[in-house]
TrEMBL record:
WD repeats: 227-268, 269-300, 316-348, 360-389
Pfam families registered for this protein in UniProt: WD40
Record keyword Translocase present: no
Species name: Castanea mollissima
Identification of the protein by name: Uncharacterized protein
InterPro entries linked: JINGUBANG-like (IPR045182), WD40/YVTN_repeat-like_dom_sf (IPR015943), WD40_PAC1 (IPR020472), WD40_repeat_dom_sf (IPR036322), WD40_rpt (IPR001680)
Length: 535
């Protein structure tokens, strides 16, 4: 199967609507067949009827300063049945066992939908939440600000669709299709007013760099460009843990590092062989990148005086399908990776080592976005659903599946619910943006009943209802049999009486009148008139 880059997802398909259209990534060889993907190590949801074959031969990944390519996780080494996504993730249904949510009753909602924000302007590509404010970016070139489910303000980028939004104090960074990063500032006097503060790189930086020929690098065959500029769409933005650096990923196969205080580009890294779809900065200076070339790489930030450099320390994944999304939990102990085959891999970090923890299967189509909060991780997919997973030790449990979007779920944002819970439950407000031009708001609980228990309870209820139905059917059958036996006895009795009357030469009526009756017989009419005769 061809690997698909996220840049190949374009709006306005043949139907004239907003349906995604996929184009084969010509940079990948077309002769390679897709390797079978392994089964879950720890976290395949139990309700899936697929075989839970376990491969314990997962080597520890060394994340020391030296590059350890032998520690690369190769899906072809895993045993068992592969991922049910062997065709293009945009137009196929699972030929193997269905995903767990396929048998889930959508009417049973454990995590509630709070509201929906709809603007018929464009498809939603990016989200960012801060407090009670939500920022949305779309292909209408607009960035809109929402407060309490109502439009609060907005500003226009004038540069194509907004593919990434990230907030840093009073600054707002937006990544665009034209390869530029724009910086906005919130007015201290009026929070609804946003002013353009600049562009990365600035015109002055471009002018200064263009003077030196050494600042030009080859970006394509017979084409050069300044190393501080992205030459293709900016696909993702991420802030370092200390809020000092901004990382930008691009379809030009590079990631660039920017200093927040002076907006200078301090480093450009040729990270992958294809479009970089995601970048995530984590604790201790670690940076994760995922690409359409099917790889996930780990980079380490090293500061030597005034010089900051990033070196490749580990390659976590190497597969045929594109890596589409990355997410890291708050402590940096778990890293999640979503792919175009609908699979979510995760790695666990202990003692500065990353080891593959397992696979989460919950989607039929490509995973387009991931978000982690607390012990929860959410995955949004092209199948229009959002899976909510809870991590308990080494086990991930699918708590629920959020349905309601009529298009692929493109982006997610999570904020902690500030309203206190009666039972001490940790709740989160989840925002999901979709290509159906809407944003939905959900309230997600980490203590919600898991999907396994819900399905088991539903199965028990179905079995109980089936047993009651069978019992009622048996009772009705027995009653009908008794009535039939009584009717047969009456028919036989009347038949024998007719034979007896025929032998005696009397009519059945005469024989009935001549038959002696008991005084207790309710059909004895003489009992009714006896007292009258006694007079």
């Amino acid at each position: 199967m061809l690997g698909f880059a996220m840049r190949d997802i374009k709006e306005g398909g043949p139907d004239g609507g907003g349906a995604p259209m996929m184009y084969a990534n010509t940079s990948r060889t077309t002769s390679m067949s897709r390797s079978k993907f392994g089964t879950v190590l720890h976290s395949d949801p139990n309700i899936s009827s697929s075989a839970n074959n376990v491969d314990d031969d997962f080597p520890m990944r060394n994340s020391s300063a030296s590059l350890n390519l032998s520690a690369c996780y190769d899906p072809s080494r895993m045993s068992g049945e592969g991922s049910p996504m062997t065709m293009s993730p945009w137009n196929q249904t699972s030929p193997f066992t269905k995903s767990p949510w396929a048998t889930f009753d959508e009417n049973v909602t454990q995590n509630a939908l709070i509201g929906s924000l709809v603007r018929e302007e464009g498809h939603i590509y990016s989200l960012a939440a801060s407090g009670d404010l939500l920022y949305t970016g779309s292909d209408s070139k607009n960035i809109r600000v929402w407060k309490n489910l109502k439009e609060f303000s907005g500003f226009k980028g004038n540069s194509g669709l907004v593919k990434a939004i990230i907030l840093s104090g009073e600054k707002i960074f937006t990544g665009h299709q034209d390869g530029k990063i724009r910086v906005w500032k919130v007015s201290p006097k009026n929070p609804s007013v946003h002013k353009r503060a600049g562009t990365l790189p600035s015109l002055m930086d471009i002018f200064k760099s263009s003077i030196k020929p050494s600042n030009y690098v080859e970006v394509r065959r017979r084409r050069t460009a300044l190393w501080i500029k992205h030459t293709d769409a900016v696909s993702c933005l991420s802030l370092s843990e200390d809020k000092l650096f901004l990382y930008s990923a691009s379809w030009d196969r590079t990631i660039k590092v920017w200093k927040i205080d002076n907006s200078k580009c301090i480093e450009s890294i040729n990270a992958h062989d294809d479009a970089v779809n995601s970048v995530v900065a984590s604790a201790e200076g670690l940076v994760y990148t995922g690409s359409a070339d099917g790889t996930v790489k780990v980079w380490k930030r090293e500061v030597n005086g005034k010089v900051t450099k990033h070196s490749l320390t580990q390659k976590l994944l190497e597969q045929e399908c594109a890596v589409t999304a990355l997410a890291v939990n708050a402590s940096g102990s778990v890293m999640y990776c979503g792919s175009s085959d609908g699979i979510v891999n995760f790695w666990e970090r202990s003692e500065k080592k990353l080891s593959h923890g397992g696979v989460l299967r919950g989607h039929k189509l490509a995973v387009l976005c991931l978000a982690a909060a607390g012990n929860l991780v959410l995955s949004g997919s092209a199948d229009k659903t959002i899976c909510v997973w809870r991590k308990d030790g080494v086990i991930h449990t699918c708590l629920s599946v959020l349905t309601g979007h009529s298009g692929p779920v493109k982006c997610l944002a999570i904020e902690e619910d500030r309203e206190p819970s009666n039972n001490g439950d940790q709740r989160w407000i989840v925002y999901s943006g979709s290509l159906d031009k809407s944003v939905k708001v959900w309230c997600v609980s980490s203590l919600a009943p898991d999907l396994n228990l819900i399905v088991m309870k539903q199965q028990q209820q179905q079995q109980q209802q089936q047993f009651q139905f069978q019992f009622q059917q048996q009772q009705s059958l027995n009653q009908n049999q008794n009535q039939n036996q009584i009717m047969i006895m009456i028919i036989i009795k009347r038949f024998l009486m007719r034979i007896q009357c025929h032998l005696m030469g009397v009519s059945p009526l005469q024989a009935e009148l001549a038959r002696p009756r008991s005084t207790d017989d309710p059909n004895n009419n003489n009992n009714l008139c006896g007292p009258l005769r006694s007079r």
